[in-house]
Design brief:
This protein is of the alpha/beta class. It has two domains: 137 residues, Rossmann fold, CATH 3.40.50.2300; 55 residues, Winged helix-like DNA-binding domain superfamily/Winged helix DNA-binding domain (Arc Repressor Mutant, subunit A, Orthogonal Bundle), CATH 1.10.10. Strands 2-1-3-4-5-6 form a six-stranded parallel sheet, sandwiched between helices. Strand 5, helix 5 and strand 6 form a beta-alpha-beta unit. Helix 2 runs parallel beside helix 3 and helix 4 packs across helix 6.
Length: 215
């Protein structure tokens, strides 16, 4: 049997994953956690074969849960289940210790396959993600993102966070009460100020600096 722990804060998603996993004969769902701290406690108690992990968990974000998993339950393989398609999120997940990365819009069969691949220690990426695009992104990161936030204004920090969460300029403009053109200006200024080259770099910066909302 493959013992699986599920860490996901949305109950409806947990129900869906549970309904998918329970009928699989050699899968055993040993627990469900709704936040990062709870996930780590259950991880130490259950020592599962597989941790199916959402990146956006309250209390302690999924990337930190992944990092601590390797210390608290070294035999556990991590399958990330995420809505984020950016190479930055995927690369950071693998750096944190994930073996597989599955998009929430993927088919049920892909999650089952990812769990089986991870159980055998093989990396898995659901379509349309590809090894080539992730490797190309990692090669482009020749320098680390700046470690200080002192150069950013409060408004620029807001824009970084909202961009990293996947919102469009129109949505950001509406939320902040500014024009889409002003949002684009902020994005351009941020890229120059931080020495970043691509939107994926900006997302990676936000992740590393803890600006991405994990609630």
């Amino acid at each position: 049997m493959i013992a699986i722990l599920l860490a996901e804060d949305h109950q409806i998603v947990r129900q869906g994953v549970r309904a998918l996993l329970n009928p699989v004969e050699d899968f055993l769902l040993v627990g469900e956690a709704g936040d990062g701290q709870e996930a780590l406690k259950m991880l130490e108690q259950q020592q599962p074969d597989i941790l199916v992990l959402d990146l956006m968990l309250p209390g302690l974000n999924g990337l930190e849960v992944a990092r601590q998993t390797k210390k608290r339950s070294p035999r556990t393989q991590i399958v990330v289940l995420s809505m984020h398609t950016s190479e930055a999120y995927v690369a950071e997940a693998f750096r944190a210790g994930a073996t597989a990365y599955v998009l929430k819009q993927s088919s049920a069969g892909e999650l089952v396959r990812a769990i089986r691949e991870a159980m055998n220690g093989r990396r898995f990426l659901s379509a349309p993600l590809s090894e080539r695009s992730i490797e190309a992104y990692e090669r482009e990161l020749t320098t680390d993102a700046p470690s200080s936030l002192k150069t950013l204004t409060p408004r620029e920090r807001e824009v970084v966070q909202l961009v990293a969460e996947g919102h469009t300029s129109a949505v950001i403009a509406n939320q902040l009460g500014i024009s889409p053109r002003t949002v684009e200006m902020h994005r351009h200024n941020l890229m120059q100020k931080l020495g970043l080259r691509t939107p994926a770099d900006l997302i990676r910066y936000a992740i590393q600096q803890g600006l991405v909302s994990m609630d």
